[in-house]
Amino acid sequence: MKILVLGAGLVGGPMAIDLAKDGEFDVTVADISSDALSKLEGKPGIETVRADLDKTETINFLCDGKDLVISAVPGFMGFRTVERLIGCGKNVVDIAFFPQDMFALDQKAKDSNVTVICDIGVAPGMSNVLIGYGASMLDTLEKGITYVGGLPVVRTWPYEYKAVFSPIDVIEEYTRPARYIDGGRMVVREALSDPELLDFPGVGTLEAFNSDGLRTLATTIKGDYMIEKTLRYKGHIEKIAVLRDTGFFDKEPININGVMISPLEFTSKLLFPKWKLEKGEEDLTIMQVIVEGLKDDIRQRYTWNLLDRYNPETGVHSMARTTGYTATMAARMLAQGLYTHKGVSAPEFLGKDPKIVSFLLEGLRRRGVVYKEEHEVLE
Q1: What gap in Å lies between CA 150 and CA 285, rounded to an integer?
Q2: Does residue 33 sit in helix, strand or coil?
Q3: What is the pLDDT of residues 231-263, one digit of tens each?
Q4: Helix/strand/coil for 180
Q5: How far apart are CA 311 and CA 333, in angstroms?
Q6: Which residue(s) pair with 343 in the sheet?
Q7: Which domains does the chain have, with CATH numbers?
Q8: Is-contact 191 211, C-beta < 8 A?
Q9: Hey, which residues does 276 pair with through a beta bridge?
Q10: The pTM of the whole model exceeds 0.90
Q11: How does pLDDT run across 23-71, given as a tens digit for each residue?
Q12: CA-based Rg of the chain, rounded to a whole angstrom?
């Protein structure tokens, strides 16, 4: 089977290596960055192509003869990339996490008789799968809560943070209003709001804040209270809020000595070098998914805990492992015909099938990404 991976960055590169390592797929990786592609050159089973992925003719050319495509392009070009892939008649696994409504492409995917799975990373991704799975085991879902964060192991002043995915998408987490469900209704709050302190074994005390990570769960799963909160080391919220509320993340250009410049562009130039996760620099991914509700009038709680760390043997960062390997397992799921729904699917759709959940969890476990499940009867 021939697989095309769009994007050779922090996540795209490890995905390509994972897909090619057992010889089960012929993998082509495309990226505009020669530096990113150079890290994959000479790897068995991988062909690299330097290309501008934001052009329809390029996507058409790259898709020719491919059986399946994984899209790991930046979020700002994710929607149109998936739309172009659907036009090529290809099944798609997408981790671009674009802001547009994925279901706007549902009919096009059905008309092209293809399967498209979006947001299938760690969060969104496995968080959605597990909430969908937990909800399927209950008669009534009362709570679906996700706490998640990617953090550097070494805390470096002043931000004690490194961008474990696209830095511009990190800033989106700090500026885009956070949507969540409370009392069965949509609530919109400012990002970084409602902070709380939580203790996690092996990590310590972290602060959690509202972020717009609920995504499709807000409409596809019926629950009384559903929310995602992002995790950072203590003190991070205040520093970011100062920058945001001062206007450093504003996109509208301002005049500085006769030169029009976007504050966000200026801030990015200063922040991104400080946030860069260097080769060999250790990171961790921590996530807790809580699903609570009624089964046969008995309140029950399912909890899944993940604590994953950088792998020094492979040199693959934790966020790349937890995000990328979820996507590669989804690709294997499609390749093996385990999921055949035509149209666009959110990850929680996969959670309705226990066999698929087991397939994903076992594949991740074999790659060292382990979700620990707890089940409690509350009354």
Answers
A1: 4
A2: coil
A3: 999 999 999 999 999 999 999 999 999 999 999
A4: strand
A5: 25
A6: 115
A7: 2-122+319-371 (3.40.50.720), 126-309 (3.30.360.10)
A8: yes
A9: 163
A10: yes
A11: 889 999 999 999 999 999 989 999 999 999 999 999 999 999 999 999 9
A12: 20
